[in-house]
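All the exercises in this workshop are built on plain-text protein records. The record below serves as our worked example for the rest of this section.
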Amino acid sequence: MKLANFFRAALVIGTLFAGLTQSAQASIYTYTGDTTGGPTYNRPLEDLSDVSGIGTDVNYSTFTFTVDTSGEYSFLQTTDQYDGVLYIYENSFNPADPLTNALGGSDDLVAPWTSGFAGPLDAGISYVLVTTSFYNGDAGAFSVTISGPGLVTVSAVPEPSTYLMLALGLAAIGYTQRRKLQR
């Protein structure tokens, strides 16, 4: 009897370690942000069937990323006590046309301040997560956790002010070169 209990305990411990080994191969990536003062758009309904009248002029934040391994990924968003909504887009997100490239959305996963979903992602494809709120005027801090079989790579997307600085710098270099040639 004691030998049977020993083998049963060994089987349970072995299963636990096997589960730990499997989950250790998965990647988990968490990012945080705040939609307060962010740009606004008219968000789509959760099922992407239309653009919502309730979600008119809601603040949003975007996060662009790729994964290095194709497979099933899960997304969990928690917000700072406001009714958050999470969407995923493939390749690009256009706030003027929020249904184009949309793959899915989620609202109220566990409670009004959590949302999430799971789905297949392909390696090397650019994805955009859009964090927003259900109601106009709701905004605040959020956290999104992505988990799956591969690594999440964040795409560096320059802010518009960065492009302005680049353009001004190039203009200054061009002006300087022109002055040198006129001498």
Remarks:
- The two ends are 101 Å apart (CA to CA).
- Residues 40 and 59 are 4 Å apart (CA to CA).
- Residues 1-25 have pLDDT under 50 and may be disordered.
- The domain at 27-167 is CATH 2.60.120.380 (Jelly Rolls).
